[in-house]
Write a structure and sequence with these properties.
Four Helix Bundle (Hemerythrin (Met), subunit A), two-stranded antiparallel ribbon, 9 helices, 4 strands, globular
């Protein structure tokens, strides 16, 4: 058995590892990591393209009207504010939150403070996009004089965001600016990880519920057009985006939950 110790690109001294064991442990790691990033950026593109292209695209303000893609005279609402809501929530609660979870996997040999900083910042950006997404959907419902908080999607959304904020504050106090004892941090760490993955998983389910809810409340002609995949590609793009989102969530949760890929302490961490 041979072991090595070396410095990473950011100067961390990596502790000795078995040269044969680590490749075995990290088998498929590079492939799954690359796949997660490809799926993530593809999801960003498809989400932006779908929301920008159909039903009026991105518009802020009163809901206007436009004609169906088949040229019929049936008017449907231009849901510009809803498109902002859909985009901000998917970009934030799915992609940025997923990337925040992966920071300790993507930078597994760098100084922990580096990964910790990125982890916290990505979650902060997630919160910012959530706020913009919430403003957009409230504006959309106000424009339509529609009721608020009547669906399971909205109830779960509030519950998820409440849990997210509590998790963020608890994580910052415990790990970002630690004022708790090492024993408490050691106890809370697995709880923090588990709750984070649960919040991410429910956020992905929330995104799927939102897409399905939107197609259900469309006017009947547009809804039938979507169900028969005759909406000039709109239904196909949405279906493909949903599949990509699910696959992205699977890769993130696999990388985050597998003990084979867990970040190892560097020597300089163990010395302090």
């Amino acid at each position: 058995m041979t072991s090595t110790a070396y410095y990473s690109e950011t100067g961390s001294l990596i502790k000795g590892i078995d040269e044969k064991e680590e490749p075995r442990q990290l088998r498929y790691y590079s492939f799954i990591t690359a796949l997660s990033q490809i799926l993530g950026f593809l999801m960003l593109f498809l989400t932006g393209y779908w929301n920008a292209t159909w039903q009026g695209g991105f518009q802020w303000g009163p809901n206007n009207v436009e004609y169906l893609p088949d040229g019929s005279s049936t008017e449907v609402p231009v849901t510009g504010n809803w498109h902002y809501h859909s985009t901000f929530m998917t970009y934030g609660m799915v992609f940025l939150q997923g990337e925040a979870i992966l920071m300790y996997r993507l930078f597994r040999h760098e100084r922990k403070i580096f990964s910790k900083f990125l982890h916290g910042m990505f979650h902060l950006f997630t919160l910012i996009l959530f706020i913009f997404g919430l403003i957009a959907i409230v504006q959309f419902k106000n424009n339509d004089e529609d009721k608020h908080m009547f669906s399971a999607h909205s109830w779960l959304g509030v519950a998820v965001m409440t849990a997210f904020i509590i998790q963020y504050i608890a994580g910052f106090v415990s790990f970002g600016f630690p004022k708790v004892s090492p024993s408490v941090r050691a106890w809370y760490l697995p709880v923090h990880r588990a709750v984070g993955m649960i919040i991410f998983g429910v956020s992905c389910a929330q995104a799927l519920m939102g897409y399905m809810e939107q197609t259900w409340i469309w006017p009947s002609k547009l809804r039938n057009c979507y169900y028969t995949l005759e909406c000039h590609g709109e239904g196909l793009v949405l279906n493909f985006n949903i599949i990509v989102l699910v696959l992205y969530a699977i890769t993130v949760l696999h990388l985050a939950s597998s003990k084979k890929y867990i970040r190892q302490k560097t020597i300089d961490e163990e010395q302090h």
